[in-house]
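Sample intake sheet
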Amino acid sequence: MPKQIQSTITSGGELRLELAEVETPAPGPDEVVIRVEASPINPSDLGLLLGTADMSQAVASGTAEAPVVTAPVPAHLLSMQAERFDEPMPVGNEGAGVVVEAGSSDAAQALMGKTVAVITREMYSQYRVVHVNQCLVLHEGTTPREGASCFVNPLTVLGMVETMRLEGHTAMVHTAAASNLGQMLQKVCTDEGIPLVNVVRRPEHIDLLKGLGATHVCDTSSDSFTDDLTEALIETGATLAFDATGGGPLASQLLTCMEAAARVNSPGFNRYGSSVHKQVYIYGGLDTTPTVLHRNYGMAWGLGGWLLTPFLEQVGPEAAERLRQRVADEVTTTFASDYVMEISLAEALDLEHIAVYNKRATGEKYLINPHKNGG
């Protein structure tokens, strides 16, 4: 019987990860069955997979074919998971594979044998039944591995650029910029002539991004970070930032440096700070500590959250389809993803692998192949 990774948080305060055997239902008229061959482990997947458990205390049990991982959930974080107590939840937001069975409609039959990418839930499964409208047909010769990350990162990149334009900004800042997503964003900005300020966490990431055409790369570990960032903001005029870090003082630093740049570009005293609106959107949580703000950037500023699905709903189906098609056209170039490891469903529950992909470190992205080693 086909297998699927499921994550459960019990009301008693324990995370339980296991491989479950699940039936694959017959497809409806407008549905297809996909043999899932590749699904990435994105930071957005880890929130459901691991919840708020303390993985430093995780324990493995079960067998090699049917592994089980348990870990305690700290008492002060347990209430955040109350809505999912004692309910096994399938994991995996996106992936790609081959259509092996199709419903009776013409649209479904047209997908038979095609390699498709989908964004949906439960993709850490060997087989998945989805509606035809959820399928993005990949170009001939594109493999499931190449198309596995078609949605979350590429559409987030294009959504950031569209948000910049919709809100009247002309340049932007991106943090944790050496990630797969960050590299894609730099490629798009280089191609479209958009000034981009990249913020990274390690000096070795500077050369990586400059090799992709980056002009401005600021390293938070450098003693001159604040000065470097302010200078880059003066040169680019960037007043919009997307922050993947989330916690700590970085969002505040971005706003502070934007204000300093605005005052250089528009000198003159104003007791309420510059009139230039400065916006930071948090779209990730690499730093899980509280977001710390030091209010020294005037009154014309905003801090909020940004998520892909609400953005796509905002722009509407026609614009969303246009962005999806661009991703399909450039999935092996602009939007290509690199993976450090391809693992099976069972290997995804190995404690050593969990320790690596849970670090969410640059250059350590994992890909699950649900049929590797038989699953």
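Comment: The CA atoms of residues 258 and 326 lie 32 Å apart. The longest strand covers residues 31-40.
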